[in-house]
């Protein structure tokens, strides 16, 4: 009887954990919802009003990051957010491995599907249209370079590991979270899906090997920052993508 109660409690905690993660996912989308509301105003070129809305968006983003990260640290006890030169070098080496995965994936897509970019990359590039205002583009740059590395690592790796997979072999959450991570990135073919899943697994390893979410955030940041800067420069100088 005690065993049945124990199993029932584990199932209940697992279900509660899923709902908490889904709730945090909804909270993480508040800045995106706000951006959707602000976009028509941004495009009217009202610089004074647009600047105020831009600052409001930043405040909301910081608040959302603080809320989710605080909850994660409370539940996981992963409180070491220090970053040293060795940490950056370690993250850079993992990032380079991720670049190899991306290059191989891109080559395979070119070979089999005649395209060198995923649907996700094409959708992101479209957001940097010359028709958009500078404030909208700055928000998209921050979203790619900062918001995604922090919140995606917390929601797709940190929280699931803490709430759902604390006592399971590391390969279980690595596979499950990587597949979920890939599923939320637009994929037009199986190769791009596998590429995002592989990158997700790599970032999960960066996190789980030392139990520090800041490690996978660093890798994710390095993976995103160059593309974000390239898209911003493309917008600023009116270059063709």
From TrEMBL:
Entry annotated with the keyword NADP: no
Top-level taxon: Bacteria
Domain CAAX prenyl protease 2/Lysostaphin resistance protein A-like: 138-226
Record Pfam families: Rce1-like
Claim: Transmembrane helix is one of the keywords in the record: yes
InterPro entries the UniProt entry points to: CAAX_protease, Rce1/LyrA-like_dom
Assigned keywords, A-Z: Membrane, Transmembrane, Transmembrane helix
Transmembrane segments: 12-38, 50-72, 92-113, 133-151, 190-207, 219-238
Similarity comment: family membership: Belongs to the UPF0177 family.
Protein name: CAAX prenyl protease 2/Lysostaphin resistance protein A-like domain-containing protein
């Amino acid at each position: 009887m005690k065993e049945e109660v124990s199993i029932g409690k584990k199932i209940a905690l697992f279900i509660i954990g899923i709902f908490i993660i889904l709730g945090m996912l909804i909270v993480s989308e508040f800045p995106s919802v706000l951006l959707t509301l602000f976009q028509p105003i941004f495009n009217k070129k009202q610089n004074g009003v647009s600047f105020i809305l831009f600052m409001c968006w930043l405040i909301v983003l910081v608040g959302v990051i603080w809320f989710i990260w605080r909850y994660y640290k409370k539940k996981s006890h992963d409180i070491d957010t220090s970053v040293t030169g060795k940490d950056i070098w370690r993250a850079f080496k993992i990032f380079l491995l991720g670049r190899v995965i991306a290059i191989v994936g891109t080559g395979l897509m070119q070979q089999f599907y005649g395209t060198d970019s995923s649907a996700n990359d094409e959708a992101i590039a479209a957001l940097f249209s010359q028709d958009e205002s500078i404030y909208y583009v700055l928000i998209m740059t921050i979203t790619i370079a900062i918001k995604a590395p922090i919140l995606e690592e917390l929601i797709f790796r940190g929280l699931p590991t803490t709430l759902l997979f604390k006592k399971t072999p590391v390969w279980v959450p690595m596979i499950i979270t990587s597949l979920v991570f890939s599923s939320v990135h637009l994929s037009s073919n199986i190769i791009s899906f596998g590429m995002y899943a592989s990158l997700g697994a790599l970032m999960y390893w960066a996190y789980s090997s030392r139990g520090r979410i800041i490690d996978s955030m660093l890798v994710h940041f390095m993976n995103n920052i160059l593309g974000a800067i390239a898209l911003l420069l493309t917008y600023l100088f009116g270059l063709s993508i």
